[in-house]
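Students often ask why we bother predicting the structure of a whole assembly rather than each chain alone. The short answer is interfaces. A chain on its own may look different once its partners are present, and contacts between molecules only exist in the joint model. In this exercise we take two input lines together and write out one structure for the complete complex. Read the inputs first and try to guess which parts will touch.
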Amino acid sequence: MKIKNILITFVSAIAILFSTSVVSFAKVVGDKIVLGAAVSLTGKYSSNGVHTQNGYNMAVERINSMGGVKVGGKTYKFDIIYYDDESNPKRAAQLAERLISQDGVEFMLGPYSSGLTKAMAPVTEKYGVPMVEANGASRSLFTKGYKYLFAVLAPANLYLDVAIRTAVELNGGKGVKIAQAFEQDAFSQDVRLGILDAAKDTGSEIVIDDKLPKELNDMAATLAKVKAVKPDVLVVSGHTKGALTAIRQIAEMKVDVPMLAMTHCDAAKLSKQHGKNSQYALCASQWHKTLTYKDKWFKDGMTYDADFTKMFGYAPPYQAAESSAALLVFKDAFERANSFDQKKVRDALAATDMQTFYGNIKFAPGGQNVSKPMVLFQVICDSSGKCENKVVAPLKWASAKLIHPIPKWSER
Amino acid sequence: MDLLIFQAPILMVQASMDGILLGILFALIAYGMALQWGVMNIINIAQGDLVILGGYIAYFMYLYGIHPAWGVIVSPIIMYFVGIGIYKLVINKVVDRDLFISILATFGISILFMQLMNFAFGADVVLANSGYGTTMLFDSSVVLPNSKIFAAIISIIFAIGLVIYMKKSKLGRAIRATAQNARAAKILGVDTEKVYAATFGINAALCGVAGALISITFTIHPYMGLPYTIRSFMIVIVAGLGNLPGVAISGMGLGVFEEFADYILGTEFRIGSVFLLLVLILVYRRFKLSKKREYLK
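Now the answer. The structure tokens for the assembled complex follow.
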């Protein structure tokens, strides 16, 4: 018994020692700026979680190898402590708490998805820890009056706004008939609100407004309605599952619509999974490699694409690009604040106005990035069946002409 | 409230056909659940996860250039052994215990399967393309994807095959005997342990077929299993235990009901209206039962 007690005391003493040593290693130590991040390495967001982590790592490596961050005449390097949030909001909130109060992290990077960001933001806000996030677009993140939350991406309500405006423009400025099907989750419903706003602005009419249950992967009823009503635009948002299901069933049911606009085509690898059936679909994207934004770390989209592919063995989806941009924003803010005081860094972040390979970044008072528009690309296939995503809107960055209206199935 | 379906009555045909095709596929999954529930008194929460695993088998065949339709043969064979394996490892320890324990055990299996599939296959949504075309009816105002028709036909073939097997084969008779009275069957020389294992295997094989069909008609994802479990559970509840033709009818009925609810009430009330129907049916049953009891008095 006695030996057992001694053993327990010994082990716990070591454990306590170990945990205190972790505390002393965090924050800004020596020449390192330690950032904290909880990303989904397991669970249902694990593929996008990994893209996020790869984006962060790529930027850390690049910034460090190009001279690091200069604050107060001294050079610092970035380092990130990662935890796996298991795609679970409760876990994400716990980990934020742990990163801040145990690991002593003073600056945070965001997790993947709006839901997890929503879970972490109250924690970082409570401790006054600036968080730059790259993967939470839900509008509700930016209406809560958070002072320490900054998002490099455009908010969800702008995702498909461009599509409606383009359709109206092609219709000679007159309103169009819109059919929409959105999953019932925070993100997709935000996209829906954006469409409602755009419809109101342009005098368009919403003829079908379906809210898809989360567990559903059959859209046959919605599409039969679309066939009967014949709208000018069909808008679908339901994450990867929604995009894949829509394309499959539109092709199978031979639904003819002049314009089809969606979200999450990147993640769905639409043309890879569906080949020519995905042709002419319009996809909302935060970023595309052919955009001509520039910065001195990654040069431009094409170079980023090539470097990322070399490092990780696959082409970067926009989730990776925006994650890399978050680090550039942090670096810029540290250098302008010329300090590691959280308050000063927060103010510097709020005053950010820069261009990165990912796009222009300037934060509104709510924390969302207002100076980077969403782009639309269209899946265009050549005669051999090879498909490519080409940017078609807004016109300023278009690398191909929008094909409109979509040819009928009987003519393909 | 949407009156589109009344303005364009042809949509009723479309809705009914969609509902029936969907219902047949769900009925196949429910069929396995009813069988195992009846024989072993186990409600298998992992039913949907077995379906998804079956779907991945077809998907991987598709990835390696084999037509995914062959999945309806390969997948049940593999899944049969997976089912036997699960039985030997876990289910045989809970089979005589109360229902709650078996629900907990299969719930655990469900979580384990989800995580393992996520680990092994990744969290991407995938599908297999069959390349089957489309059938147009009534001057192309009703469209039915051939993949769904294929799925329904295969489901019917497997269901009929199983009914015949249950009636004619030795094992089928043993399974039915065990379902009626396990103890009596044991006394009369039926190896109930073997019967249980086979039942679980057959259920898993049916899930395998359904999964392969789902990968052709819909999409699969490691975390997508639960809706299939719930749906088949509902179908069995509506049909009543041990009522195999009832399973087919209630499967199709629920499918059609759901499609009509979608058109009339809106897509967001689709699942909700099915649950409401379930509650009504249960209340009605209870009402009928209480009357019977009075009569007995």
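Check your guess against this: The mean pLDDT of chain B is 87.
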